[in-house]
């Protein structure tokens, strides 16, 4: 059974640019009833849903604008393939402090050693 929010709620949420709340409102309302949540607990859940939806939307937009081809991540990189790569250094770069410090990063080495994968993976961390 789908619980329909008050008809006047939809335009107000859209006006406030909170229409994403409508996506989770039914499920959260059912959860609130089943778990006997207080009003503040229910409100916190729907606000967290909206905040999460917005963060995901911003992340998706940044990823789209990055122009990355494929999905190269540090988790997908095989450090055993090239033991000469210092994993701790790469993990440190993945913290992206170089952005705030306004320091350029140069990744150099022979062909087929994983430079492009590492560069894109660090880019994903920056996004």
- On the 0-100 scale, what is the average pLDDT? 89
> Which structural class is indicated by helix and strand composition?
mainly alpha
- List the total number of helices: 6
In the predicted model, the low-confidence regions spanning at least 5 consecutive residues are none
Helical fraction: 55-70%
> What is the alpha-carbon Rg in Å?
22 Å
**Biggest beta-sheet profile:** none
- Total number of β-strand segments? 0
**How far apart lie the N and C ends?**
39 Å
The global form is elongated
- Strand % is under 5%
**Which H/E pattern describes the elements?**
HHHHHH
Molecular structure report:
The protein is an all-alpha fold and 127 residues long. It is built from six helices and no strands. It has helices at residues 9-15, 21-35, 39-66, 87-93, 97-100, 115-126.
Question: Nutshell version of this structure?
Answer:
The chain is mainly alpha-helical.
Task: Lay out the secondary structure.
Blueprint: H1 9-15, H2 21-35, H3 39-66, H4 87-93, H5 97-100, H6 115-126
Helix pairs in contact: 2-3
Features:
elongated; single chain; 57% helix; 0% strand; 6 helices; mainly alpha; 127 residues
